[in-house]
């Protein structure tokens, strides 16, 4: 059985940088343990924006420069350095169509998502993957995710559960 773990946007800007939260900081060790104990491939996504971020549609709606390519905020947290990483996918928006295409070619039986933010990038990618791979088991480990707020985290988990995405550790 081919298993793939998707570590979504565990980047400095989302943990303790420009858009960091206490909830994001609190899941780092859980994510680390998940990666260390995972039996399968481990892929990472990175939210990736250009220097002109503030001129983009997203920048106009979220006017906080973050995850600017090449900056410290864009980097995956050093807490995960040295851990398994089979692939990194840079994505310019919430959900990655590149991730969707690559996983469709791989045909994994189970995909588990962890990371940040539950209510934006995790849910976007989980829904894209559920649509592309309707027969694959798609799961989200709630203990390894954090949302913009605890309330929006819980709402996102509920929405994914309604779409037959398995919610683990909730």
- Radius of gyration computed on alpha carbons: 15 Å
Number of strands: 6
How can the largest sheet be summarized? 6 strands, parallel
Q: Give the mean pLDDT.
A: 97
Provide the helix percentage. 25-40%
Question: Would you list the SSEs in sequence order as H and E?
Answer: EHHEHEHEHEHE
Gross geometry: globular
Poorly predicted runs: none
Protein structure class: alpha/beta
Percent range for β-strand residues: 15-25%
Count of helical stretches = 6
N/C terminus separation: 25 Å
Strand order of the largest sheet: 3-2-1-4-5-6
Can you tag this structure with a few keywords?
170 residues, alpha/beta, 6-stranded parallel sheet, 22% strand
What does this protein structure show overall?
The model has no long low-confidence stretch (mean pLDDT 97). This protein has a 6-stranded parallel β-sheet with strand order 3-2-1-4-5-6. By secondary structure, the chain is α/β, with parallel strands linked by helices. Strand 2 (41-47), helix 3 and strand 3 (87-91) form a beta-alpha-beta unit. Helix content is 37%, strand content 22%. The longest helix has 16 residues, at 22-37.
In short:
This protein has six helices and six strands; from the N terminus they run βααβαβαβαβαβ. By secondary structure, the chain is an alpha/beta fold. Strand 4, helix 5 (118-132) and strand 5 form a beta-alpha-beta unit.
């Amino acid at each position: 059985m081919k298993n793939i773990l998707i570590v979504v946007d565990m980047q400095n800007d989302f943990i303790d940088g420009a858009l960091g939260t206490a909830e994001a900081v609190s899941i780092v060790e859980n994510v680390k343990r998940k990666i260390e104990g995972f039996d399968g491939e481990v892929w990472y996504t990175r939210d990736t924006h250009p220097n002109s971020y503030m001129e983009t549609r997203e920048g106009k709606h979220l006017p906080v420069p973050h995850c600017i390519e090449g900056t410290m905020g864009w980097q995956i947290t050093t807490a995960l350095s040295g851990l398994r990483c089979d692939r990194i996918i840079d994505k310019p928006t919430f959900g990655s169509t590149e991730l969707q295409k690559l996983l469709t070619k791989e045909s994994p039986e189970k995909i588990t998502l962890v990371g940040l933010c539950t209510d934006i990038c995790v849910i976007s990618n989980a829904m894209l993957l559920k649509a592309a791979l309707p027969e694959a088991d798609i799961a989200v480990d709630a203990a390894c995710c954090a949302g913009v707020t605890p309330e929006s985290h819980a709402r996102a988990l509920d929405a994914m559960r309604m779409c037959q995405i398995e919610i683990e550790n909730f």
